[in-house]
Amino acid sequence: MDNKQPPTIIFHPIISSIQKIALYETKSRFYLMGSNNTQTRFRVLKIDRQEPRELWLVDDKMEYTQDEIIELVNMIDQGNRSKGGNRSKSQGLAKVVSAFGIVGFIRFLEGYYLILVTKRRRVAVIGHHTIYKIEDTTMIYIPNDSVRIFHPDEQRYVKMFQSIDLNSNFYFSYSYDLTQTLQTNSAAPKHIKSETTNESTSQNTVGNDEDFFNMWLSRKNWQKSDEYGIRSNPHRRFVWNDHLLKPVEKDLHRDWILYITHGFVGQSNVSIFGRSMYIILIARRSNRYAGTRFLKRGANCKGDVANEVETEQIVHDSAVSSLHNGRFSSFVQMRGSVPGYWSQDISKMVPKPTISCVLADPFFECTGAHFNELLKRYGAPIIILNLVKKREKKKHESILSEEMFDAVEYLNQFLPLHHQIQYVSFDMARMNKGKTANVMGRLGNIANNAVLKTGIFQSQEPYYNQRRVLNPSGSVRRSHREMTSSITKGSDVEVNPLIEDKIRDLFLTKGTVQTGIIRTNCVDCLDRTNTAQFAIGKCALGYQLCALGVLEQPKLEFDSDCVRMLEEMYEDHGDTLALQYGGSQLVHRIKTYRKTAPWTSQGNDIMQTLSRYYSNTFSDQEKQHTINLFLGVFVPQEGKPPIWEMLTDYYLHNKVAVEYRRRNRVLTQWWDDKVYKCLPYAYNQVAKTCSEMIQVQHSQEEMVDIYYDYHRPFELNQLADIYAYQVSHSVRDFMPHFTTNFSPFAVRIRPGRRREETSSKNANIRNPSMTGQSSTSSNASSASSSVDTSSDDEDSRHGSDSQLIPLKEPGEVMSFESLFPSMREVYGVEPQIPRRSDLILYKRYVMMGRNSTHHSDHSSLRSKMVQQATFPDVVPVRVELPKVSDISVSIYEQYVQRGRNGGFAPSPMDLHLYEKYARQQQMILGVPCREAF
């Protein structure tokens, strides 16, 4: 048989085996002893304390059993005791602290410090993968006091470093790559490349030799399924402890390494008549060109923009939690400052410092580098939603609008039409000034058009009856086959056939992918940007729920439990990001632009404005120094000026200004060839790499058994303490107490809410659902004024459909076919008369079942029961006493005796189990002794 089916290749993320750490110390060394949750596998890390400046550590890469680790601890303890046997506090092996992971190592002007996670909290679950938030950390100085060399500036650096609050908005996971999107994590790895050792089994390029993934598919002897455990390489842009891991990442086993992200993570449960749909919102803040509001504007010479945040919205049907077999959907958008060399003068204490372009960039190299990076990460199209003001009496924000528009016009000259950057400008602040403003409605139209172009990611194929809804014109639903064929159509670049094969095998599961990104910005990328991202997220959520079979149409109404929950998540998302970048919470919230905010909120807006102004004026400089120190932008050196004496950090973030850079390509080609050849797919997903790959026999092996890691059957928990009972719930937290409609998509009309519907005058014009209005309501403004406002406040460039298309409801015509659709219309199949071969096969199956049951002869005879009388005679039934075995009688006698006389002495086997349990508890408590530690 030459025609054999290819195997089903399944990739499982490798779970870190070090989730608990105990730190012990002696005079000469620190010992980090890490174990898994069950404490059956251990690793040991030794750190030398005799070196005052350098970091010397030893990782033997060996795994120890529980008995071996107890023996090792006792041996270390005995070897460090005094000869007389009298043990003092400074002698022997002493436990310092228990922890859950290593953040990293840092050195200023003296020796190294060790930073550990001492407290964590579960904040989200993606399938069976748990995401933790750091609640507390500890910073321990490694060198012994006897060899310490003091420096006068050391304590100031330590205090500055500790002002970074690692207890707020820093996240990690032991099994899920939090630095990558769900779509990237679901993609198959194409190369094995270790970023720490720079060793690769395949060239990290697309279009050259056949890679190992394609070689698997060319094997002759197929297996039923191949399962592999993999460790993916993280996206370094979102690893905030990257600088802290550099001293040890090449020397330590990967299980010791934790990649920590900064931003926001939130999760909610939308209960749809008992069916739970989890919504997870993840915001990843970039560590490139990071800083505070007025000190980090625009972009650096590499195209890294300020306040860059990637926001991912994941929807998960909790019926199946496996990432491979479950139904997941995700949508990614981002925010970031206007790319370019611009800043604001903060030397004068004014509320709005003047915006100025500080450096001429005639070829828009900075902007081109930024969009090249976006194409590499997300693919095409890139849709820009610019919310900066366009028309002002005195130019302020409009300078940025002109700069952005000119840059997009210039860069699009060198791209084909189907890959060009699409630009949409919407003066959100100006439109909101009107009494009858419909800002959310206009954002809803923009969001709908943008989501139709980028699409959403789905791990499985949509249900049959949802395909026509999600793909009315072939725009939202982008299958792998359609996307592969679209690469060569209309392109003037010859594409290597191998690239097409790689893209076809990009995802091992059926479904659709998102290609491109919606990039939203205003001046600060805070208030207006967060409202616009909520509008986009709300539109995308409708398509996600529709694809998962929950909604019939991709429309969500305001003031429903689902949208109120999503609005609260985006409010928390915006507040967190605003505190990180601007120093205060949001000033103008979603309710402000919906015109539903109470008048009492104006006082809070004033307080937030003052808080933001105070933070930007008096504390931003110190915060910027701290961020530069934490991220390794500035490294203290002996004999060099300290960071607090530097007048500016411009040359730290723009290395090109102090060194010569040679251009690798002409100025008209602002993109990379490898990126362009993969469009509209993202190069990072087509050429995904992993650092380690291990073939496993089955998914129940401990290193990949995510089900066992999540449920932890070895622990005793109360149901109330399980995370699923603690997550925000639509019924418990948002549904009214007295209601007859339990749908989370039903509109809840309450006093003071839904102002758009109750105050509407013209009820003949239909509005899209994004406005929060019913289909029979309308704006207070007329149609003609709406057109005028659109021409003034909104500008769309470089799009295939610049005209905004509102979401219209289809005409409702009552007919028999609409009430009772056929099976083909709903499920895509139609019942047919079975074939003769199928009938023969079914008869064989029935006969096999009858022969295997061994019925008695009389069982096959049909009996006809005839009632002889109206009141039949009562026939007594005789029951024989059952025979009880001697073992059962003995067990019952022991049970009765325990009730009368108490318990019996335990068996030797039970005593052995209890002794083993006692030794384990002594080891956990950290009590070093001869028998246990």
UniProtKB/TrEMBL annotation:
This is Fig4 protein. Residues 161-583 form the SAC domain. Residues 749-807 are annotated as: Disordered. Residues 760-773 have a biased composition (Polar residues). The chain crosses the membrane at residues 93-115. Keywords: Hydrolase, Membrane, Transmembrane, Transmembrane helix. It is found in: Endomembrane system. GO terms for cellular component: endomembrane system. It comes from Fopius arisanus. One of its GO terms (biological process) is phosphatidylinositol dephosphorylation. Residues 774-789 have a biased composition (Low complexity). It holds the Pfam family Syja_N. Its main location: membrane. One of its GO terms (molecular function) is phosphatidylinositol-3,5-bisphosphate 5-phosphatase activity.
